[in-house]
Amino acid sequence: MKNYRWKYLAVLLIVAFVAVIASGCGSSTGSKDTVKVGVILPLTGSEAMFGEMEKNSFEMAYEELKAAGKTTIGGKEIQLMYEDDQGKQDVAKSATEKLVNQNKVAMLSGGYSSACTNVIAGSAQTMNTPFLIVTGSSDAITKQGWSYVFRGTAAPASKYTIAFWDMLEKVVKPQNVAIIYENTDFGSSSSKGFREECVKRGINVVFDQAYEHGALDFKPMLANLRSTNPDMIFATSYVMDASMIVKQMKELDFNTKLFVGNGAGYTMPEFYENAKEASDFVASTTLWVPNVAWPGASDYFNKYKQKFGKEPDYHGAQAYATMYVIADALGRAKDMTNTSIQQSLKQTDLKTIMGPIKFEDWEGYTNQNKPNTYVVQWQKGKLDVIWPENVKSANYVYPVPKWNER
User: Fold this and answer.
1) Which of 112, 145, 168, 350 is the most core-located residue (most Cβ within 10 A)?
2) Strands of the 131-133 sheet, one edge to the other
């Protein structure tokens, strides 16, 4: 009887072990009926306005793709599974592990802040899970040779300024500049690239300072900055910092020939809503504008505005285009294993509202698309394209009028 019981227990253990192994082998497909895609965004916290725009844009693209029959892969429906990283690195890491280990997603996407994106990317690489970045732009993310990490709609932070340097060379021609930036991965990476380019071009950097992200009083820094009398200020800030900086410049009657933001907060509708008239003539680099020549760009902009009552900026366009890249890559993959999806992403050649998407290796970057960039300027509450001139929606204003002359 004892031998029988031991044999019976042994059989049960073997059956249980086989079941565990089988469930692990099926993790790449998510389930029998769906192909799960994990999307990690800041849906609460200080960055939630960006996460909300990107989630809305993912959903818009998904609905369009579904109507066209492009969300069904081999009889299985793509299922988007959202996780909120709250703009915190530890939460982003936990969300990544949950989606991969518990939800058994076939691939990951999302990533807003560079800090959280870097954590997601590192974890995805360790777990051999394809990760398609939406926004996180720190140069370092795609400079680590990670084979499972892809960045298509987002430019490396130091490359946001490609169009802007052309405008500087032909129009602004500054003798000296000031650099201010938030002490985040994105801020540091952006300022580093701009600083190095200034050195190459012989432009004198008279002020170069990081500030605490989320600060309330920028006046001491601005007072020190004003004493250096720069021709131009180059700033990297998220939306609330950006609004506060230009409002306090107005309060201090601090004038400069041109103030340029490096994307991020300076292109958001909330920037104008918070800064009001202080936003006038503030310029910014950007990765996308609704009147760009890429097919579908203006349609996306108009549909988003109609559906959500707000105007999207390049962050929303990034998410919208990313969803199309995901559907395209999954549709071409031989199967839903991690290696097949990785290979399919690597072979991407797709035209989107952000321009052509190809994942290439260049200048030390791995699986990095080459970006298109623009310069925009706030004029009377409207964000106009001022450079390149062949796509401009308004003439640039330079040098900008002094505060007491507006």
Assistant:
1) 112
2) 72-73, 76-84, 34-41, 107-110, 131-133, 149-151, 365-368, 360-362
Distance CA 129, CA 13 (A): 30
**Residues 258 and 400 placed together within one structural domain of the fold:** yes
- Domain count of the chain? 2
* Rg, the chain, Cα only: 24
175 lies in which domain range? 159-286+374-405
Instruction: Write the pLDDT tens digit of every residue in 70-109.
Output: 999 999 999 999 999 999 999 999 999 999 999 999 999 9
CATH number reported for the structural domain that contains residue 339 in this entry? 3.40.50.2300
Determine the 3-state secondary structure of 157 from DSSP.
helix
Whether pTM > 0.85 for this model: the answer is: no
Do 250 and 388 belong together in one domain? Answer: yes
- Closest C-alpha to 134, from 42, 235, 267, 269: 42
Distance CA 350, CA 368 (A): 14
Cα–Cα dist 284/236, whole Å:
10
Q: How far apart are CA 195 and CA 178, in angstroms?
A: 10
